[in-house]
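> example.struct
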């Protein structure tokens, strides 16, 4: 039986990924700041690069709002490093998202179309906002590369949510 999808308002048990530059990147569980977790499809996806370039340009705005940014894909370390080298992103970039972790996050998983696309199954896009207590505030998952939250709108909504201490929605 498949793992149930995560539910807004529940605690996300800590999930760790290897991080470029060494160490691990852990999301879920208690933290000092809020977390914006972005799961991207991987090096083969040009739409992901566009999205992550926008996110990188907004790093200071997210940090000023009290958010840590965590980005991960199922790519190998070498592929993730190639993207970092090409684009110079300044957020924490992790790799080797496992299929078990994809399932835990409720992500859609795709078989590559060919070895030219990539060499393993990968997660379709997912965006999560996690409160400092480890509870999930927002879950936005897609089954394809073209549907993702618009980052400026998301940040504006998260600032409103924090300022007004709004609860998670869609919990029923």
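> example.seq
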């Amino acid at each position: 039986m498949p793992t149930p999808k995560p539910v807004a308002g529940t605690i996300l048990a800590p999930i760790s990924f290897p991080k470029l530059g060494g160490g691990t990147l852990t999301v879920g569980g208690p933290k000092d700041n809020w977390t914006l977790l972005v799961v991207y499809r991987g090096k083969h996806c040009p739409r992901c690069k566009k999205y992550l370039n926008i996110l990188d340009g907004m790093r200071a705005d997210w940090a000023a709002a009290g958010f840590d940014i965590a980005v991960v894909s199922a790519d190998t370390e070498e592929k993730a490093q190639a993207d970092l080298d090409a684009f110079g992103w300044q957020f924490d970039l992790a790799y080797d998202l496992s299929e078990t972790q994809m399932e835990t996050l409720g992500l859609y998983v795709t078989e590559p179309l060919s070895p030219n696309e990539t060499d393993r199954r990968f997660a379709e896009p997912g965006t999560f906002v996690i409160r400092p207590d480890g509870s999930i505030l927002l879950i936005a998952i897609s089954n394809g590369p073209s549907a993702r939250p618009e980052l400026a709108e998301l940040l504006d909504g998260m600032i409103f949510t924090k300022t007004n201490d709004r609860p998670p929605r869609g919990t029923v």
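> remarks
The beta strands are 15-18, 24-27, 34-39, 67-72, 92-94, 109-110, 122-123, 126-130, 136-141.
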